[in-house]
């Protein structure tokens, strides 16, 4: 069972387990979409229905106990993005009468299941723009608790704030904020956002329809709308709206960087944490061309108004026509032209996020960025690399598009004899290239742009009943959220528990804006010393981690749009 749960992180901790398209998990009660659409300031407050009820801009909510915290699940933060609101910016949620009992896990956004017996099936709902809130059972300090706002990963085609930890326990959450909230103490928020074609379809007709407004980045706009909801409502939960830190993993980290680079978003938070993600976004012309080609090949290709036709499809039909894809090296899922993600639309994102941050536009913000020691271990689990010749063949196949000089450089930089196996060497090559060294570059550019920047490296290999596991992509999330404790019948190794406590401490101290009480110093990033905090047992600080390897990769990044 634990192996199965750990395998979920293979896809950026993003593969949902089971569930029919129309299911809620379990018995979630959503407000009636036909409720009074008065603007939030006009909702009728009335008397509190109970002592534990919290007033939000759209009505009263109640939660339920979760350890040393209270959790409020699946609160709508935007109107259902259905019908004419498909491919449009999110609108404010409707008022509801009575009390919204925020005690059940709501729907995930539309996606294709990636793992398990139901892999390939369509799950989720289009009406999915909800968020979860965890509040510590403690008296708020003057000004309120710091707020940690989480953005999930999943290659922008999968994942959810409502993702279960274990398939057999649909009421469990992978991103359970209970321990993070209680230990801080901090208010923890997680939010859904539209995925795949619902969240990131680009098309020339959509650009024309927007008439100068933001296009394609509907999912990023959902994230912003949830952050705006936090600004308007979090005080009611004991949170401090001026002390919000956003954090995300994989595609969630890409999203964090995009929000940091977006002039319309960055005033909504103070700090940002990027876990295993890049500062990148695609040029709008490239995304539009791919979208136009895909729509032309769909059932709406011959329609007089292709966008109206796409809006007329059911959510399942749309996803069947325009499924998403992801790839790592020679490993890919979905159609070769099925990538979705942030685009430089000139409005939400005026340019490449890494360049915006380096320019100084985000100066004064605080940033943590880092990656894991064996990011690619699970991605390459089924790949055979037994000999040095296999290693050289894999490098040649993967990097020949960059030219023979790059291939020769990789082979000169990575000697398989320096690693336990040739496969471990290949894991290091791709992990450094895609995550570890790009994190160093992001920390460097952020420091140059006037941000208070810090770098971390996660090296802990968890001990499980199946033996020691790799420090792979997404595994650190179990430590950040403390959900190692939630696997049925499993007790974490004391060293793993200690690393989890450390990560929770550092994330919440960073959110509070004061790291002076941290057990190990975590200096701001300086490219002369390249100091990094390494999460392992024991916790330690070091300098110039993977220095020679990153010195090789960083000059190459300009050729791949980072």
Strand content: 15-25%
CATH topology, by name, is Rossmann fold
- Looking at CATH, the homologous superfamily is Alpha/Beta hydrolase fold, catalytic domain
Strand order of the largest sheet: 3-4-8-10-9-11-12-17-18-21-22
- Can you tell me the residue ranges where pLDDT is under 50 for at least 5 consecutive residues? 1-38
User: Please, what is the average pLDDT?
Assistant: 90
CATH top level label: Alpha Beta
Total of domains: 1
List the main descriptive attributes of the protein structure presented here.
Rossmann fold, 17% strand, 3-stranded mixed β-sheet, disordered N terminus, 562 residues, alpha/beta
Secondary structure layout:
Elements: H1 2-7, E1 54-56, E2 59-62, E3 64-66, E4 69-76, E5 99-101, E6 111-112, E7 122-123, E8 130-136, E9 145-151, H2 178-183, E10 187-191, H3 196-200, H4 204-210, H5 218-233, E11 239-249, H6 251-261, E12 271-275, E13 282-283, H7 284-296, H8 306-312, H9 315-321, E14 326-328, E15 331-333, E16 343-344, H10 353-359, E17 366-372, H11 388-399, H12 404-413, H13 422-448, E18 452-458, E19 463-464, E20 467-468, H14 476-480, H15 494-512, E21 531-535, E22 540-543, H16 547-553
Parallel strand pairs: 2-5, 9-10, 9-11, 11-12, 12-17, 13-16, 17-18, 18-21
Antiparallel strand pairs: 1-2, 3-4, 4-8, 6-7, 8-10, 14-15, 19-20, 21-22
